[in-house]
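Thread: sanity check for a docking pose with 2-acetamido-2-deoxy-beta-D-glucopyranose

Original post by kr_44:
Hi all, I'm comparing my docking run against an independent structure prediction. Below are the sequence and the ligand SMILES. Could someone generate the full complex and paste the structure tokens? I mainly care about where the ligand ends up relative to the chain.
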Amino acid sequence: MFTGAFRLVFLLCLLGIVVHAQFRLTLHRRKIGLKSYSEYSTALNQWREQFHRYKTLKATSKILKAADYGKVKLLNHMNAEYYGEIFLGSPPQRFLVVIDTGSSDLWVPSKQCSFFNLACWIHNKYDHTKSSTYHDVGKEMRISYVTGSMVGRIGEEEVRIGGMLLKNQTFAEAIEEPGMTFVFSEFDGVMGLGFSELAEYGSPVHYNMYHQKLISDFVFSIYLNRDEKDSFGGEILFGGTDETKYNKTTLRYVNLTETTFWQFKLDGMKVGDLKIDLDDVLAIADTGASLIIGETEVINKFYTTIGASVDGADAYVDCDKVDQLPPVEFIIGNQAFRLEGKDYIIKVKSYIFWTKCLIGIAGMELGGEEWILGDVFLGRYYTIFNVTEGRIGFADRLR
Ligand SMILES: *[C@@H]1O[C@H](CO)[C@@H](O)[C@H](O)[C@H]1NC(C)=O
Ligand SMILES: *[C@@H]1O[C@H](CO)[C@@H](O)[C@H](O)[C@H]1NC(C)=O
Ligand SMILES: *[C@@H]1O[C@H](CO)[C@@H](O)[C@H](O)[C@H]1NC(C)=O
Ligand SMILES: *[C@@H]1O[C@H](CO)[C@@H](O)[C@H](O)[C@H]1NC(C)=O
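Reply from moderator J.T.:
Ran it for you. Here is the predicted complex with 2-acetamido-2-deoxy-beta-D-glucopyranose included:
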């Protein structure tokens, strides 16, 4: 086990924005993938069972009525990262990938990663020489994230996600990875769920699910649990919504302004007596970002209103005062989306014996770039991403 304070960079998106917080993290030694033959064959048998069930379902054209088809359980790391399990290749190689609605490519670390790629040492690595379904596309992919670049080799593979088998999925095996976030992360790679317009190469996984008729409704729904002690970290459901997980009467839709990011107009912000009208501000729904990010000037007014103490890039409140914090409302298309104090606070173990209450809404010099509504916002709602309609539905989540 390894502990140490370092700067965890929260944000995983393409915009060029960084947020830091001083953190203490516990790094668990991880089991590296499926090791023995018996583990492989167990996994394979599980997949076979699921496919069999899927075929039966398809025959009766009731895709998605089954309990688990299309669902991926998520792991929640400190309310800052949500990731799920996927398998690449034949026999399947296992990876944990961040669910990222702020990008559109799939990538995992490569067995052939560079010696200087630290992240690669301690994570699951994809080995194309061990897969019979690998095709080399013969091209390189380079994605600039906030924290650095991912450089990888593009291939096509069979990918297994939530009981579905995707053929010919483009992905990159990363030779270089974007910065320290990936060294200390519990996840191996990234699964982008943005629009295909944003993809560096090929189609994102949800496009292939739809085009290969594994799902009939071009939609996915995300539930992020904000109770980091709960073993149920959250869930993503491809092809539909899980009505047991949200209150239908509270469902509201937001139209997108364009289909690259999941992006819409943000009209204003309200907290206590402070009401801020925002002109020409766009925001994106980004599960790959932990926080809400807004223009510094606006966010500083917000901090003053709630009485937060600001320390460099971070703002805190006394943990005893969280219950007395005023709610904040984000105004989107004449609708108010409200977060209570407990929703916009992230409890951070700063030093061994005490906890700090970090405000999950941070300021950046955005200079007209989009605001980011990350997990702090999305965790409050059950979120329905409908590709066909180009709109997002937000409903109160249950459980
Ligand atoms: C995958 O690619 C192969 C070879 O290009 C092609 O024959 C096959 O039809 C493709 N399958 C799907 C489901 O797109
Ligand atoms: C769903 O929302 C409505 C409207 O806010 C509320 O009256 C109802 O009690 C909620 N139902 C549940 C199960 O929380
Ligand atoms: C969203 O778009 C639909 C269809 O274009 C339109 O009817 C509706 O009024 C829009 N909603 C808002 C809040 O702008
Ligand atoms: C997504 O949009 C399509 C097209 O309007 C619609 O038929 C479908 O019901 C929507 N799915 C969900 C879950 O809202």
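Residues 112 and 166 are 24 Å apart (CA to CA). Hope that helps with the comparison, let us know if your pose agrees.
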